[in-house]
Each structure stands twice: as structure tokens, then as C-alpha cells.
Amino acid sequence: MAVTLFKYPYTFPLELGGELAGFQLAYTTHGTRNADSSNVLWICHALTGSSDPTDWWDGLVGPGLHYDPKDWFIICVNVLGSHYGSTNALSINTKTKAPYFQSFPDITIRDNIYAFELLREHLGIDHIHTLAGGSLGGQQALEWAIIKPDLIENLVLIATNALHSPWGIAFNESQRMAIKADPTWQEARPDAGIEGMKVARSIALLSYRNYDTYDFTQARDSNEQTDHFRAATYQQYQGDKLAHRFNAFSYWTLSRMMDLHNVGRNRPSVTNALSQVKAHTLVVGISSDILFQPSEQKFLARHIPDAEYQEIDSLYGHDGFLIEYKQLKQILQAWETKGIPQGR
User: Fold this and answer.
1) Which subcellular locations apply to this protein (predicted)?
2) Is the pTM of this model over 0.90?
3) Do 129 and 56 have their domain in common?
4) Is there a catalytic annotation at residue 255?
5) pLDDT tens digit sequence for 133-158
């Protein structure tokens, strides 16, 4: 699926006081939009995801799957700061005629939603039937449902939260410390900090999975084994794998974006913000998630009016939302058959 670019040529002020000298958003679409936009499914991606959900949510989105392009007009946008086509630290700052590199400003979830709004208006979409996302994607979806409560009919929030926890911030800071410890990080070059990012990804995997996951999937080969442990080679592999498709600047920007997520900022309170959501809302937690613990999703379900909470029983921790397609499909189908309009 081809990626389309939306270009905004004007200065774009940011929530925390910085600005972008214009920006672009990379997005993909699947399916055909109805004349009244009644079949729009907008999906928000997670930390290192791209604008193509058939790539990273391939058990849920695609022909013959739960979200089938023959029924839905599916759109997903790469967030600002990411590596997959939207404006990021490697982009040219039109004011300086050089890449942003370390001068790239902090981007918040809220900044992204206002950028998405510009794209939505450009596309003439005045109604989103279903808005869905997990993790960082769920943070985006929630913020949007608060900012534009009358726009979104149905909301699916998976393994996400109302504000990022101190535990989550600590994990992200540890990863950024690894990037910062890379001596190349201060250099103005596209691969700056890449070795540090490999370590950061290794740290992240520990929060995406858990003790039982590793005990099951990375067990010793034998009692006599003394080197080349699966758990060790797996960590190295995951760092190398990400280094081939991502950059440390984007990793830094998006982990900061996650830390800055707080729907209560500059509003009366977190609970007041959640009370503004008007969409029919499904909140899904994962039983073994140690990064976005189920208590955070239960909090959302308690304070979003008439929201429903369901839980995936998974060995795979936070990554369960990218793995447990069968359970997720069953939860979605049950929720959708309770009288929620399908718009198809």
C-alpha cells in the first residue's frame, strides 16, 4: 500500500512552546470511504509502528480479517517525530536548511492530534465511526476523543492509560540513558546514538514481556549450557532488528511523547477530562502487562461514561495486543454485537 504525504507549509506551534516550520504527515488508506464517512476506521499506531496497520496488526487488519477493507475505509497516520515518513529529527528544518537532529522539539500527543485534525479536514472526513489504538496509539485515540467528543462514534482503547505512570517513565528514561551513553549521540549525523538505541530496545523488551514470557520462550537449551543463552541472543537480536528500521532520534522523541501523555494537563483534572468522552468506548487490558498494567485500563473504564472493560489473558505481557488476535477479535465481536452501530 502506497504511503501518501500531507504537507502543511505553515509554522505549527507546539503545546510546550516550540514550533515546527511546517510539517508533513505520512498516511495510508485501505478500502473505499462511503459518501457519508459512515465506515471510517482510524487506527493509531504504537511506539515504533508505521502508518500501515496491515504490517504491524496483520492478524486483525486486512482482507478476510476483522477489520476488512471491503467493509471499512481504514486510515492510519505516522505520528510526528517518527521514522516512517512524517516530519522528524532527520527532516530538513526549512528555516535553517539543515536537518533538525538534536534541535528537534518535544512533540506531545496533543500536538499530534491537532496535526491529525488538519489532515482530517483536508480529507473532508467529518465523522469517524471507530477510532482504535493500543499503547501509544491508545493514548492518541483517547486524547482525540476528549478534544473532539462529537467526532468519534466508537472508541477502542487497548493496553493504554490516561497519563503515563512513573513506572513507565522510569523505563523510558532508562532507555534514553542508554542512547545518551552512546558517544555518537551528540554528533549531527543520521545514525547518531544507534548503538545506544540497541540497548534501549533491549530494556524495552523487558517491559513489553515479563518473567513468565522469557521463562517459556527463552529457556536454556540444556543443563550443561554455559554460553549463548537464548535470552541473551534474543536481546541482541531485537536491538539489531530495530536498528535496521528505526533511528535513535525518533526513539527519543516518541518515548518522550509517551512520558508527556497526561489528559489532565491544563484541564480541571484527569477524571474531568475522561468524563468528556462521548464515544461508545471499549477498554481492553492484558492480564500480564507490567508496563501498562490492567489497573490503568480499569481506571479508564470507570471514568469514561458507559465504557466497557474486557481483559485478554496472555503470557506475552504488553505485546499481547500485537499477538493475541483471536482473543481480541472475540472481544471486539462481542462488543460490536451489543447494539453498537456498525456503519457498514
Assistant:
1) Cytoplasm
2) yes
3) yes
4) no
5) 999 999 999 999 999 999 999 999 99
Amino acid letter for position 114: Y
212 is in an annotated binding site: no
In a domain, 342, yes or no: no
Same domain membership, residue 222 and residue 175: yes
Going from the C-alpha of 48 to that of each of 24, 107, 213, 245, 252, the distances in angstroms are 18, 15, 21, 9, 11
Task: Check which CATH number belongs to the domain holding 222 and give it.
Answer: 1.10.1740.110
- pLDDT tens column, 299-316: 999 999 999 999 999 999
Residue 344 pLDDT greater than 50, yes or no: no
Structural domain harbouring 183: 168-258
In terms of domains, do 220 and 88 share one? Answer: no
User: Does 319 belong to an annotated binding site?
Assistant: yes
Residue with cell 528505526: 246
**Which cell numbers hold the place of 11?**
509554522
Q: Write down the catalytic residue from 86, 135, 250, 255.
A: 135
- How many CB atoms are closer than 10 A to CB 258? 22
